[in-house]
């Protein structure tokens, strides 16, 4: 089959004879849309554990069923499916932390390929049929939206709260969309890139230019009645930025380390903010099946409009160009499409 294969650090090769996935009591899917995300970009450097070449990357996907061994799904149906699901029986799964499961069921391979196979457990737990008025492109974004659902749930989100998103990339802007859909009273975004700042404003956020608008904490307080936002999402992987925003939260607020930082990086944090102001510091990576199902339902029922975030579409055989655009920051979300 055709695939865009990660063959060496910073190298993607388009091949036409990659091994076909095997159906194993689940369903076989012809991929129609797949998204390039920050994890794929990090993996491409060759330094991410467990993601070493040669392999096919990609875990945001939607397509059509080619063959199914599951009664509820038939050939020809349009579906999206999560890239993983917890085993359901381990201590983590039973405690509601499926994201930490050590025995996850995974797709047969990456989504930057013509086909993938979804094992039965994964298909039964996460696959959903795409309504006719929802595109493959939108459906492919259920996985990143699920990560944001988990993020805001972990922040103990409540309607009427205010939120500051640090970084107006794709995941940051997904937080803007979801917080707005969940009743945010005020959505703030700080972002140096003027194009992304303009998009955040288009989505309803009040925006901050770090080069012009002065001290972020003072600005955020001025936008929230002098108190600071209830929630701060650090959607960037820059330690110095993360350290600088913790004191911008209101007393009792939550700061979420959403953007991944290097494993061995230590942070310098105000003990006063944690102890006396009761600011909580949290983090999540990935999602749980419940988060994915909620994200899928929101997309299926048009509760969030993801279309403005899809800025670049490329055919699979131009995956190299797609990665270059994604890495440069020129695009917000790059989708690889297949007929």
Can you characterise this structure?
By secondary structure, the protein is α/β, with parallel strands linked by helices. It has 2 domains: 3-141 and 306-337, Medium-chain alcohol dehydrogenases, catalytic domain (Quinone Oxidoreductase, Chain A, domain 1), CATH 3.90.180; 146-282, Rossmann fold, CATH 3.40.50.720. The chain is built from 12 helices and 17 strands.
What are the key terms here?
339 residues, alpha/beta, Quinone Oxidoreductase, Chain A, domain 1, Rossmann fold, 2 domains, seven-stranded mixed sheet, six-stranded parallel sheet
Which percent band covers the strand fraction?
15-25%
Give the structural class. Answer: alpha/beta
- CATH fold type of the largest domain: Quinone Oxidoreductase, Chain A, domain 1
Q: Any guess at the CATH architecture of the largest domain? A: Alpha-Beta Complex
Described by strand count, sense and barrel closure, the largest sheet is: 7 strands, mixed
Query: What low-confidence regions span 5 or more consecutive residues with pLDDT below 50?
Result: none
Mean pLDDT: 96
What is the C-alpha radius of gyration, as a whole number of Å?
20 Å
**Number of DSSP helical runs:** 12
């Amino acid at each position: 089959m055709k695939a865009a294969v990660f063959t060496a650090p910073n190298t993607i090769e388009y091949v036409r004879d990659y091994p076909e996935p095997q159906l194993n009591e689940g369903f076989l899917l012809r991929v129609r849309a797949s998204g390039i995300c920050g994890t794929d970009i990090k993996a491409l450097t060759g330094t991410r554990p467990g993601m070493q070449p040669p392999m096919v990357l990609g875990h945001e996907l939607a397509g059509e069923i080619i063959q199914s061994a599951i009664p509820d799904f038939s050939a020809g149906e349009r579906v999206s499916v999560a890239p993983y699901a917890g085993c359901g029986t381990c201590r983590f799964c039973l405690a509601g932390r499926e994201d930490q499961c050590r025995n996850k069921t995974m797709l047969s391979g990456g989504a930057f390929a013509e086909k993938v196979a979804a094992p039965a457990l994964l298909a039964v737990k996460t696959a959903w049929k795409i309504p006719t008025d929802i595109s493959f492109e939108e459906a492919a974004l259920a996985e990143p939206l699920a990560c944001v659902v988990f993020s805001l749930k972990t922040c103990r989100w409540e309607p009427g709260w205010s939120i500051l998103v640090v970084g107006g990339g794709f995941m940051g802007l997904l937080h803007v969309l979801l917080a707005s859909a969940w009743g945010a009273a005020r959505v703030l975004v700080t972002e140096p890139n003027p194009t992304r700042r303009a998009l955040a404003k288009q989505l309803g956020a009040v925006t901050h230019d770090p080069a012009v608008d002065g001290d972020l904490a003072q600005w955020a307080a001025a936008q929230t009645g002098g108190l600071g936002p209830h929630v701060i999402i650090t959607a960037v992987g820059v330690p110095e930025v993360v350290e600088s925003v913790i004191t911008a939260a209101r007393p009792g607020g939550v700061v979420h380390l959403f953007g991944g930082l290097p494993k061995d990086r230590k942070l310098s944090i105000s003990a006063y903010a944690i102890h006396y102001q009761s600011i909580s510091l949290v983090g999540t990576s990935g999602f749980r099946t419940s988060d994915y199902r909620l994200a899928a339902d929101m997309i299926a029922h048009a509760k969030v409009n993801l279309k403005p975030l899809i800025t670049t579409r490329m055919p699979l055989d131009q995956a190299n160009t797609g990665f270059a655009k994604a890495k440069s920051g020129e695009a917000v979300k790059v989708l690889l499409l297949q007929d």
